[in-house]
Amino acid sequence: MEIVKKFPSGYSAVYQGKRYRANGGSQGGVTLWDETTGQEVGTVPIGELDEWFTTRTIGTYLDEQFRVNAELENGQLWIYYEGGNGRKIAAEWRARQESEPESTFWQEDRFTFMATVPKSEVTDIHEVRQDALGPWREAQAKRESTQ
What we know:
Elements: E1 3-6, E2 10-15, E3 18-22, E4 29-34, E5 40-45, E6 51-61, E7 64-72, E8 76-82, H1 86-99, E9 104-107, E10 112-118, E11 123-131, H2 133-145
Antiparallel strand pairs: 1-7, 2-3, 2-6, 3-4, 4-5, 6-7, 6-11, 7-8, 8-10, 9-10
């Protein structure tokens, strides 16, 4: 099955007004990749970034929040559930495996459950951003004030 759209997940950064995929930072720098080509642009000092944040795309399925990974060519979404009420989700997976032949359910590990389900069954799809630059700057200021 082909992926039609991959939903944002992971680190991003804005540097000199342009958005890039990024890493979590190492030794005071962040490596940037072009969002379109995937080519590495380079590593820049964290302090020179305009923004630095993590992004996750969340949706609701079975009255639980799931991370939405991708939309597939057949009109389904690839979703996954991490943590929370794993017993409930495992029981749902077993029950739905037979009643929903258009969907696929599997358990990656004890706490991670994945599925491909019709897009129409996932509601409230939205992006959640968490700032990484602000906390980094606060930690730097605290470090400088204790020296």
